[in-house]
Amino acid sequence: MGTVPVSVFIVVAFVSVVMRRFSFVNGAAIPSAVDGPFKPVTVPLDKSFRGHAVDLPDNDPRVQRIATGYWEPEQIFVSLSSTHDSVWISWITGEFQIGENIKEMDPKTVGSVVKYGRWRFGMTKRAMGHSLVYSQLYPFKGLQNYTSGIIHHVRLTGLKPNTFYYYQCGDPSIPAMSDVHYFRTMPASGPRSYPGRIAIIGDLGLTYNTTSTIDHLMSNHPNLVLLIGDASYANLYLTNGTGADCYSCAFSDTPIHETYQPRWDYWGRFMQPLVSKVPLMMIEGNHEIEEQIEKKTFAAYSARFAFPSEESGSSSTFYYSFNAGGIHFVMLGGYTDYNKSGDQYQWLKKDLAKVDRKVTPWLVATWHPPWYSTYTAHYREAECMRVAMEDLLYKYGVDIVFNGHVHAYERSNRVYNYNLDPCGPVHITIGDGGNREKMAITHADEPGNCPKPSTTLDKFMGGFCAFNFTSGPASGKFCWDRQPDYSAYRESSFGHGILEVKNETHALWTWYRNQDAYGTTGDVVYIVRQPDRCPVEPDVIN
């Protein structure tokens, strides 16, 4: 392997020390899912701590453009392809325009080139990619339109597993190249091959609390970051830059739900110190909808991020899959057709059928709106998605599900169809990244908090599937009258999670709260696969 920075050796040494903590944390034994189902726990709300959910202003140095030349790359991101031997490098050149009269830049104006190699002074390999711009346009007088800088996506191939690479991106013919950055590839797929630490965040935003989340996350030195929807929250703003914690409360009379797209650029600049080194995988949330002219949606999301859609057989940026060592990740779309007759369901069925659990023993699924959240906010909102897809995920033995959307933390017992089931997945809601809308604090099972069924449907997706329970302790009711048995732990605090897969059967899950000291855990558990108890028979694909 080529020369790597001293800081990287420190990180590796740190991770090696941390991974020796196999059975104890904070002096106590770590519980195992095999010991479950666990008795439901609700951590009382700390009323003195509601977080600093105030957006960073546009004059904060962390969100300002620091590129010295017009064509110098900024907002540099690394993301994964579907396998270890390929990654995507993304960046933006030029500057966005906002106003009533704007003109899209020509993407061909500047090249999309990445120079890379295993040594800092030996970046002899070269890859070229494609570029694009997107616009956010409104058909109403007085609203400001937006067009982006030139967005570049370049795919690097032929990479060695678990190896550091240095790279520069830009256009060497101008010349306008970035500083030298580095990333580490994922391990090759195999039953004993896993990334050291995978960070999970959701509903991040760009607040002072977001900065705390990312600071804590970076202190845990992840090898990979999953963002489970809702990144910039640009749609909490009018096009003139006026924002609010609740858009519908403050701006109920606007003819269309506006956005202030420069917040995406601010967010990209803020995230660059992390994601120019550590791959980030994103899936859409409701705050990425961002409707514009001709009812177009998800323009920023689909343009700004690189997705391994084509590599994983998907025709959409809304759902895709990839491997990270012995883990197969399925990233699903909660805001595109998920019905059994639709493209996403048919793709998912084929993707799951191709998974070889002898090569990738762990199967992890993510999407934005949770199926098993007990908070009042968004309660049973994604019930139609659950009805359509849960049987398929259960059939193929999904081990863990990560969601966002609800601005709190909750971990379930293993559950299927609202019943405790040792072969069902553990569902983890981690929509507590720190966004401006603040935390969810009320639970649907508390007196007076159960919403009416008619109020729970997803307004964007439509459909209604949430009815009263027909069996169990909540039979005949829409909500339980106590914390449901399937809910193991819930708490209203901002934070992030770290997943450390140890081997074919054991994964350590740790949730860290922002208000705690660095390294202090909020929730920790071993999630244990039991393939002998819950066998998955592989399908034969022609």
UniProtKB/TrEMBL annotation:
The keyword Iron applies. GO terms for cellular component: extracellular region. Keywords: Glycoprotein, Hydrolase, Iron, Metal-binding, Secreted, Signal, Zinc. Transmembrane segments: none annotated. It comes from the Eukaryota. Residues 197-409 form the Calcineurin-like phosphoesterase domain. Its cofactor is Fe cation; Zn(2+). Pfam families: Metallophos (PF00149), Metallophos_C (PF14008), Pur_ac_phosph_N (PF16656). Its EC number is 3.1.3.2. This is Purple acid phosphatase. The lineage of its organism: Eukaryota, Viridiplantae, Streptophyta, Embryophyta, Tracheophyta.
